Amino acid sequence: MTTTARQNPVFRFAPSPNGPLHLGHALSAFLNDDMAKAAKGRLLLRIEDIDLSRCTPEFEADIYADLQWLGIDWEKPVRRQQEHFSEYQASLHSLIERGLVYPSFLTRGEVKTRVAAYERVNGPWPRDPDGTPHYPADDRDRSEEERGALLASGLKHAWRLDMKRALDVVGEPLFWTETGDERKGDILAEPAVWGDVVLSRSDAPSSYHLSVVIDDALQGVTHVVRGLDLFHATSVHRLLQSLLDLPQPIYHHHRLVVDSNGRKLSKSEGDTGLAELRASGLSAADIRRRVGL
Length: 293
Ligand code: GLU
Fold this sequence. Notes:
Helix 7 (208-218) packs across helix 8 (233-243). This protein has helices spanning 23-38, 57-69, 85-97, 108-122, 144-152, 163-170, 208-218, 233-243, 274-279, 284-290; strands at residues 10-13, 42-47, 79-80, 101-104, 158-161, 175-178, 185-188, 198-200, 223-227, 250-254. By secondary structure, the protein is an alpha/beta fold. It is globular, with a radius of gyration of 20 Å. The protein has one domain: HUPs (Rossmann fold, 3-Layer(aba) Sandwich). A 5-stranded parallel beta sheet has the order 3-2-1-9-10, covered by helices on one side. The structure holds glutamic acid (GLU). Glutamic acid binds at residues 14-16, 48, 212, 226, 230.
């Protein structure tokens, strides 16, 4: 699969309505808008709301209001991920049928206990780039009978990618094209560092990784512009694109806006929240300056 180089570049800003947008989101939205305009491309807005317990219509309404205030225009209709669970499930099922995905039954607490017990004796357990321990191999190594019995018992479960098998199926190194603020050029994808990632959560019929690659493909996205905090996740995205035979966009991971202690902003920090800045009478031009544009 070659890098997509279409006539009409398509950019997207893809916030999650699980909290108020902050200056980091403003930087991302401005960059998407600026780059789409410079490339004479289109700008889409995608609402990434698969987390049913944390996403709310109020936060979604704030996203529209904040972007309007920033002077950013996007194509309608907006794609809302909650309305597309059946599409994510269809891709998940194709991977299950190919034996590349398995049901995982351990709770987060059980994994934590297991990892702590291991580390007391043996030293560090492998962790992913976000610091989450790799999922233990128990469920991956179960027989079909055992798996069937556990599923039939109604035990809560997620669906995870069998990373080893997936890499065997792909059988060659994967790369992505990066134009971002830290590294540029052809970047080697290293999905193995993530272990067996979740593709469908126990509380939602998809996951961030699965939805994002399917939507980027279905929406014809050619340029993904997002924060450097998602740089390493791109390795998983490239692997899924290869497994699902999806085109690959060009990636641009931009610098993060940090607080006075040099930490990445979080959605709970009031003083950098766009709604509060908007209410305090600042203009879009003020916000552009605040994020260093
Ligand atoms: N929904 C993600 C977020 O709000 C962004 C996903 C992406 O741009 O790929 O952090």
